[in-house]
TrEMBL record:
The lineage of its organism: Bacteria, Bacillati, Actinomycetota, Actinomycetes, Pseudonocardiales. SUPFAM superfamilies: NagB/RpiA/CoA transferase-like (SSF100950). This is LUD domain-containing protein. It comes from Amycolatopsis iheyensis. It comes from the Bacteria. Residues 95-189 form the LUD domain. InterPro entries: FTHF_cligase-like_sf, LUD_dom, NagB/RpiA_transferase-like. Gene3D superfamilies: NagB/RpiA/CoA transferase-like. It holds the Pfam family LUD_dom.
Length: 198
């Protein structure tokens, strides 16, 4: 038996003898609350992203407004809102902007999580164009990172986005748009039709 095999055998023996019930750590995770959407919105703005709050009916207009002067807009397959642009599988380097949905938003960090399902496209789509407009329903906001990890499929690719792409590597000067979109605009869609664009 090699030294490696001896160590692994000792570890297996110790784990077998351990009381698994005592080894479990109680986690105080909680479900997202109404205030979590407010916190998410606050943190998104803290990260220098733009934010629009709207109802489902107002979403197409909010997206078009967020796109501003962008002329070539990339829309991935499965995007659920009609903004007058047909979905395109084309090369993302040919586009000024991309619109996607997000799988989740994390309140405590202001992070968007894309799992590249319908309406999100492949990872490059959200990283190459200079403008990213990301649409998130309020009911997809979770309180924290542990809740997000528990809700996501670990077998799916994921992109976690906290604000526009930025770096301060060179002489501690902030430069935006180096590793992804220079502009991030988050459109949060209310569950209630009574919430207006804010």
């Amino acid at each position: 038996m090699t030294a490696r095999e001896e160590i692994l055998a000792a570890v297996r023996g110790a784990l077998r003898d351990a009381d698994r019930a005592e080894a479990e750590v109680a986690r105080g995770y909680r479900a997202a609350a109404v205030g979590d959407v407010e916190l998410f919105a606050e943190r998104v703005v803290d990260y220098r992203a733009s934010l629009t709050r709207c109802t489902a009916a107002e979403t197409p207009a909010a997206i078009r407004s967020a796109l501003g002067p962008a002329r070539n807009v990339l829309v991935p397959e499965g995007f659920p809102y009609d903004i007058g642009v047909a979905p395109s599988p084309a090369d993302p380097t040919e586009f000024d902007a991309v619109v996607t949905t997000a799988a989740l938003g994390i309140a405590t960090t202001g992070t968007l999580v894309l799992d590249h399902g319908p309406g999100q496209g492949r990872r490059a789509l959200s990283l190459v164009p200079d403008v990213h407009v990301c649409v998130l329903r309020e009911d997809r906001v979770v309180a924290g990172v542990p809740e997000a990890v528990a809700a996501l499929d670990p077998a799916r690719p994921q992109t976690w986005i906290s604000g526009p792409s930025a770096t301060s590597d060179i002489e501690l000067t902030r430069v935006e748009g180096v590793h992804g979109p220079r502009t991030l605009h988050v459109v949060v869609v209310a569950d209630s039709p009574d919430v207006k664009v804010g």
